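Q: I'm writing up a methods section and want to include an example of the input and output format. Could you take the sequence below and give the corresponding predicted structure tokens, formatted cleanly so I can copy it straight into the document?
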Amino acid sequence: MKKLKATGIFAAAMAAVMLASSGAAAPVIGESYSMTAYASGSVTLDKYTLSLGLGEGYALRSNTSSVAWRTSDSKILKVDQKGAVRAVGLGTAWITARTSDGTEKSCRVTVKKAPESVQLSESEVVMGKGETFGLSAVLPEGTASAERIFRCNDPDVLKMTKTNWTGEFKALKEGETRVKVILYNGVKTSIRVTVKKAPSAVSLSKDKVILGEGETCSLTSSVPEGMACTKYTYKSENTGVSTVSADKDKVAVKGVSVGRTNVSVTTYNDRRARCRVVVKPAPDKVTISRSTLTLGVGESTRLDYSIPEGTYSGSVVFRTSNSKIIRMTETNGTGKFVAVAPGTAWVTVRTHNGNESSCKITVREAPESIALTKNQVTLAPGQKYTLGSNLNSGAAAMVRTYSSSDSNVVKMTRTDWVGEFVAVEPGTAYVKVRAYNGVEDICKVTVLLPDFSFDLPDNPITLDPGSTFRITAGNDKLVSFSVENEAVATVSSTGVVKAVSPGTTDVIVTTDSGKRTRAEIIVYGEKKYCTFPAIDDVSRLLNKAKLEPVKTNCSAVDSLVDGILSKTVKSGMSNAAKAKAVYDYLAVNCSYDYGGYKAINAGNYKYDSDKDIVEFSYCILKKKIGTCENFSAAYVVLLRRLGFDAELVYGDVGMSAGGYGGHYWVDVNINGTHLSFDPQVENSNLSDSGPMHYFYGMRPELNYHMYHYDYIIPVHGFKR
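A: Here is the clean output for your methods example:
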């Protein structure tokens, strides 16, 4: 066939007519070209978009050689009639292939700067023999290179299975080599590839995980030392219970719904391991271990949390509302923090599904001084004594530790918040209180053998202002009496002690034979700070409680509890009658005495407070003796066994001698209304007919001058 030669003007006109008739949008024509009588039909290209670096060439290919090529902008792209494209300027242009009948296809080409460097998608590869791996090249932003050729330095170690644009290779034998990528302009880089033995086994970082619904945890895969694997395949055997999301040797496991399943990992050479996944209900609430705290600047402590039994949340995080006042030192699972500056902040605990609970923390200045309630005490062997402490105004210290300089003379029986001790043998010792920041005070304790005994119903002698007490001494003739502080009490020549005003003092008695001894006098103050409850109001509230019985899961304690309840609680009793029955049982049948602080080891519990409350309760339930913590712990155990929401509370209580001292009592929550119960103090105030119920169901908001709730240790449901 005879060739027809067309001018550029004719060709351009023909292109415009053909495109118009086909309905296609015509690219701008940037240069003329010669046209032969080409075959008609559809045309396709190997690329429809392309990025090139400045100066880079690329050979576009069509499904037929009978096409004409043109560029839309010759200042950006050059093209010859074989489809060879050359990037000559920055920007975007189109390369178009057209058949003789006017059918066209275009490739959009973006020209960017030539790259001056290149990186690979991995900095190093360690793989197992027989494994396949792939690399890609990463260019600086704003640059391009369509040509990316991969090469291996040692074909005996690696076999390249793909070399253009991406680099894929298979490990043939153990050893070390380098894989490099080369760009069109000669820029290149390489990484080290190490081939180790194929894994003989694989393991997951955990054999079992527990999740709450919606919670996610991460597992890591590993193979034996000297072996390697880069590709792990993860699978959940039941995606309705849990799903997996993999990233190399790590997998995120998500709990979907309650149930049990397995998550498996498989290596490229079919080695496999499993992890058991248990999904529990997500908690519908979370309770922080304390609702309020008062600390001094620089003081550190921690908060725990509890969630409803049978639920789970492993991703529990603590945070502070103001890091300038409270700075967190540990936040995952445990809230540890330090008081930084005076003010008020909240520490909040949050579960994985968004439930929260907060503790209000008041920070005051660090104490500059601390003063014991007494700085000199004289006791006889076997006599017990309790010291409290006060800080300078405006200061706070939750941590106050007591110690004895000589345990052979004075033995400490309690060392936190208050100092309780017993005189052991004659001598002198010093009881010291120390706050968290080192400020101290001491009390000199002298232990003497009594020269004689005299008739006292109690030591100390407790009196109300204006009341009197006569001292007698058997066969010995008393010749003199004196008191150390006549503002508190006076004594007559015949041994009649008269209480004057609230406080403490000692009365000293001397016989005609020169023997001397002394006794402590405590004068109570008026109890204006104490509002006693109406029993009917307490009963009405208790009867509204929804009972959810809880055991301690300590068989020795639960057995004692069941025995007491079988004696005290009868069928058909109301809530209030049940609570009153066990309260009266403790107040009437038990007595205040030492010797059973923690009489058993109850084993491990999730929270220390759970363990303490079980162990505190045992001795009084078993031996019928104990101090305030034993009485209150036993009442909490009994109440929770009945189903009440009871908590053990530790804080300040108004002392008969003035000031405040550490004490344990019980708080019961009834639909947000709180009642306070103090069975130990009730025991100390029994009438001839039994409990007076002065301390039964007191309202905290009405008794804040007597009971200070700054330090609360809640029961967590006895979780092992």
